[in-house]
């Protein structure tokens, strides 16, 4: 069993000085054994004149600290300290200061107000920061154009693989299933008007115009936007970014530009691929559940989907890719101080990435409809 | 989850007297990463209460040896006994009972970056002894930072606000949190200025004396070896080729040892040490007369 320290207070037996009590501590006075008596000793409100530790069989600095603090508080004598105890008592004999161990915590109202103010300030700073970030990127592009040999081809290809090629499996599967759901649910509703054959229009057009590229962008934001933020953020913490700067390599050119280009370019392919997979999903389910077989579904898609739906996709996709990559890299570059920040910034990269993709998608939807591509 | 208090009760480990002369015994240790063999049939004993310096060229596996002993690296072969228990075969409860008896200072300090220095020190205390009151935890943090030689203001600071030397001291304070019997220091004076390094050495020596610590000290610092190490273990050729006092080591006829202690830096440290002793010897009679 675990041993605990014990104490015994003899009232009015304060030794030579007479007044006050005598406390006899016994057993081990160690960090693992004083937990039970420590609060009692702290709360004892009588007067102690003598602290007898001759029955203490083992002591460490925590025990010594408690004895020393008790002695200080009651102005008591310590009796029966052996060599070890004396040495440790001396070691912990440091005036107790009032420096804070924990960070300050203001009252709730103040914290809420402070938090709100900070949020507004962050928002403002973030906007300015993002603008200056964009400026740096434009400058970096400029300098790459002036020194074409610095064009980071290898890094771009590598990022293309990570962003595009490696995500084909999951994006394909997801888009296929979305195509299945749209076709199946759409057919169920359309059949009420006897318009089941319009399922092809629904799946074909919505996949190309909206869902294919949107879902792909969301997946890329989750996969790659977060990866950008975490990688760059960690590199900032380990001072790798600073090291690059001192060597004369621009982190914007070396880290951010390749990710931007790779993500922008690959988004076009991935978005188109997602749309195709979604249409295949719709065709597959209609083959199974509707009266339309696989190949005639695909043939009908060609008839009912206008070419400008493809243009809509091809225009939106690179913009989405750029947004996701920009926000990922930007959040990564904002990491400072500690590991928690990496997590926070990564979350923001994904959340803002998806948010802005959807906002821009809405703007595009209104725009394309009003120019007659409806 | 079981109550933490119960868990501690179960590991009724008698402290201090459960091992003999040697808190650490390593036998026939083999560590290899792929083709590259770091240790082969390495053996080492660390004596109770000593400060053992561990030296060796880069890549001789000083850190790997330390990581093996503290259980962060599983060796291919060999036996490692800490406090008389074989840590490679010990069950998890036993390992916990061993872990709260040692403190480790990593090279960079390895402080938890989201906690203040004071909270860092309290982490092991809260983990092992949840029964301690918050007031006591704060008081413990206070005197531990002072024991480690930090100013009190450091308590409320975050690691990112500290200098390299202060981080090491804060790491030392955390390593000392549980009043360990055994202290592992991985290059504690690397990256410190000479004054800071000398102060750190002195602190280590004093702590070892007052708290009765056994110290396993990896270092490249020749001054540290001369000043505070009772014995020095030399790692070379995948083994510990010698363990002895610095003076005895210098008589050994091994090329690396000769180069190490008698190279330009070794000589400088030696001269400094000799001057120091001379000064002390000259001071003594004066003090005696007075």
TrEMBL record, chain A:
The keyword Transmembrane helix applies. Pfam families: MlaE. Residues 1-21 are annotated as: Disordered. Its main location: membrane. It is found in: Cell inner membrane. Residues 1-13 have a biased composition (Basic and acidic residues). Could be part of an ABC transporter complex. PANTHER family: ABC TRANSPORTER PERMEASE (PTHR30188:SF3), ABC TRANSPORTER PERMEASE PROTEIN-RELATED (PTHR30188). This is ABC transporter inner membrane subunit. It comes from Blastomonas marina.
